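Record format v2
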Amino acid sequence: MANKHVNAVIVGAGAGGGVVSKVLAEAGLSVVLLERGTWQTFDDHTDDELFSQRTTVLGNAYGPDDARYCRVCENPDGSTRIVLPSESGYNNVAACVGSGTLSYGAMAWRFMPQDFKMRSTYGCPEGSTLDDWPISYEDLEHCYERAEWEIGVAGDDSTNPFAAPRRKPRPMPAFPYNKEARVLIKAAERLKWHPFPIPMLRNSIPYGGRPQCIHMRSCVGFACPINAKCGTQNTVIPAALATGNCELRTNTVVSEVMIDERGHARGVRYFDSNDRLQEQTADLVVVSASATETARLLLNSKSKLFPNGAGNNNDWVGRNLQGHAYCGADGLMPEEIYEEAGPGACVAFSDFNHGNSGLRGGGMLCNEFIPLPYLYTGIRPPGAPRWGLAHKEFQRRNYKRTIRVKGPVQEMPVFESRVRIDPALKDHWGIPVVRLSGHRHPHDIEIAKFIVGKAEQLLRETGTSEVWTSVPGAGGPSGGQHQAGTCRMGNDPKTSVTNRYGQMHEIDNLFVADGSLNVTNGGFNPALTIMALGYWVGEYIAKEWKSGAHFHV
Amino acid sequence: MNKMDLDGKRGGVSRRTCLKLIATAAGGVAAGVGSAKFVGRLGRAPEGTWRVLTAGEASLVEAIAEQIIPADRDPGAREVGVIFFIDRQLDGPYRRFAAKYRAGLVCLAQTSQAVFSKPFESLAWGDQTKLLQMLESNKIPKDIWTKPSASEFFNLVRDHVMQGFYGSPRHGGNRNYASYKMLGLEYPRVIGQNRYG
């Protein structure tokens, strides 16, 4: 039996799509929300380190699975290798209701005003497609505010002079500092830095009908056992379903956006939970499947008017894939500083996000999440013994004495870092898979070295001499869980994929609402910005709909 | 392979019986931690046999594992059952590494014969260490190791031993959370008392 025609079909129930489903359902549109994964809870995988979303050696706890998914990575020499979702080259994002927001570390960053104006602030370096966003921080501010209040954020900017301006405080007070944060704060104050609590999508007090955080050490990479972490799966998606206007279909894998003869989106084709091909027609389609999968879906949607993929006649879909040049320093303290109060990350410094002489942008620094015991076996100064009694001695002596200061450093977008479709390999459903290729911009390494120097300086200021650093390599492309940029928004159809509202330049009833839209990716974890973009795109669609533009074709 | 297929005895209790006892214990822990569904899916280990490794391969892997994480005042890889983790994963997500294990173990046995004229398990502790250091740095007789390379094989086994030692007991290693105890981490964590408010 054919599926009933609806107003909107949304592909992907993560940070972006979850938010859009609520905004559209509340505006009275009939919505079908398609999610390739399923509902997941803590009990499915508990606190199993080896089978989580952070350490994935035995698989991704919340998907995708190794049995049905794969990708192809192109090496710098042009050779290729097949990568599984549990392997790092895959650049995985969780496949479940809520996606990464179920299991993330839950940092709730707003980008800074400069992050939306990177080109006009710094100029574009050679070899990059650096540009300004077509929207400003001020445009997006009310969307950040909605995300903070409707999904739930704890935080306090009062000691951060670099914080972006806001109209309204966050709904929950900040989390207290732990022992290692207090050590770092003393050192930072001597350096005249400005420590402040990391904003978190986590309940510091009971909020949204869910309890206060119990500080699991296994937090990042895991679902919360008591639902104190705020994701789209326990906030906006249930709200969308409660309107009666939204139907969520899990275990559905979308293969194609159907484009008609006149170049309008007609709906999507997908495989249901029994691997049967189905069609869902709709007045409009929103793709929010992550920077790699959104690009893949558009590129796989070939039609008469768009032989190179939906909305891709200018060859910008899949380009400018970015992530973060994650880097920092590790230090061993003279005494134990470990505190059994997860997730551990709680203090941040925004002193180096911008204004770094001779450099473009920068990144936030913060103390890291608690590394679980296996992850810790990879945390070693250069040349340290990796096995034998010396290994064991290192674990015993230092596990509770290690402070890690790390940060996501803003990258320069590169046109050749991209998502393509592999010409040969197909997944379980016969859908051609993603092929990743490209490299980092040299500035990423330069700025990462600068930020690493700052992290090292802070750790040395605590008084310890046992400090070592890590700088990302030039190989690429970047991506990871912070993947972004592949369907850039912009005013010029020749150099972007969508307009400022996430609406495809060439197909007016096809929208993108995820990190793919990010022109640049800020020096911060991007989840809250993706949620804010969900509100931004959703509000535009709802407004147009109410004013009579029903995107009818 | 048959050269390595030995079933050693230790202290009157056969090795295999000993391992069976550990397997039962590990199963008990898994039942406490995971859901009933999970244990049901894993099922019991087949009686008296390994899932993938031969008895000889298992004893060789176990000897390497004990070198990678030796016992001292805290248990080593052997005592916490790292070998159960590895054998079980080679029948699961690490099926893709099984051929590499098999080939690497043959090369390791040959290297031991070539350098010390003895099987690896019979070497003195210090000679075992030396041999593994040779593998790690790829300083080995060239004609023995082609695929995998010695360091590739060593790193693979090293990673898996670390996982079996520090990962959740539900996968077969880290019996009774011995490594968590070693690091001074309470497990299971007592939650519900308002001690962090």
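The interface with chain B takes residues 43-44, 46-51, 57-59, 66, 86, 212, 214-217, 225, 340-341, 372-374, 376-377, 386-389, 391-392, 395-396, 399-400 of chain A (CB under 8 Å).
The mean pLDDT of chain A is 96.
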